[in-house]
C-alpha cells in the first residue's frame, strides 16, 4: 500500500465554515484551471451538515470530524476523461501539493495532498461514459465545532476571465 503524505504545515480549522470555505476556494481554483465550460455540481450530495467522523469508532459529540465536499464534474462535450484526471493532478502539483494515484480506487485517479492538510481527489467512474467525480476534505477538527448553518455553493462555475 502506498504511503499517505503527512502535511508539512497542517492548518486545523477553527470552525466548520472555515473548513468549507477553504475547500470551496480549492475547488474553485481547480475548476478555473480546467477547460472552459467546466463546472462542479454538488446538488446530489447535499445531505446532513457536510461533516464525517475522522475515526471509525467516534467517542462522543466532540470526536474529531472533517468536512467533505463531493462533486460531479460537468465537462465540455468530447472531453477525454482520463486526460482531465491527469491534468487535474498536474494542476495540484503546480500548487506544490503531493499527488499520487492510489490503489483501491477506480483508475485512473489522483489524490492531491496539500501542505495544510486539505485533500482533493479526482476519480474515474466505474462506468466510463460518466465524467469523473471530485471530492475535497479538510483536516480533522473538534466535533463540537460542527454547525448545521454552514453554507456552500451547490454549483461551482469557472470565474470570469480577467
TrEMBL record:
| Superkingdom, natural source | Bacteria
Region annotation Disordered: where it falls in the sequence: 142-162
* Name this protein carries in UniProt: Lipoprotein LppJ
Q: Organism, per UniProt?
A: Mycolicibacterium sphagni
Amino acid at each position: 500500500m502506498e504511503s499517505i503524505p503527512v502535511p508539512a504545515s497542517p492548518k486545523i480549522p477553527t470552525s466548520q465554515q472555515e473548513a468549507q470555505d477553504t475547500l470551496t476556494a480549492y475547488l474553485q481554483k481547480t475548476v478555473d484551471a480546467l477547460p472552459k465550460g467546466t463546472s462542479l455540481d454538488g446538488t446530489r450530495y447535499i445531505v446532513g451538515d457536510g461533516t464525517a467522523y475522522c475515526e471509525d469508532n467516534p467517542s462522543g459529540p466532540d470526536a474529531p470530524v472533517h468536512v467533505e465536499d463531493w462533486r460531479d464534474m460537468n465537462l465540455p462535450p468530447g472531453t477525454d476523461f482520463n486526460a482531465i484526471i491527469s491534468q487535474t493532478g498536474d494542476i495540484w502539483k503546480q500548487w506544490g501539493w503531493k499527488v499520487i494515484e492510489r490503489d483501491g480506487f477506480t483508475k485512473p485517479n489522483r489524490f492531491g495532498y496539500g501542505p495544510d492538510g486539505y485533500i482533493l481527489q479526482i476519480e474515474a467512474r466505474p462506468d466510463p461514459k460518466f465524467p469523473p467525480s471530485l471530492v475535497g476534505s479538510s483536516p480533522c477538527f473538534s466535533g463540537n465545532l460542527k454547525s448545521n448553518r454552514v453554507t456552500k455553493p451547490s454549483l461551482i462555475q469557472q470565474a470570469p476571465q480577467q
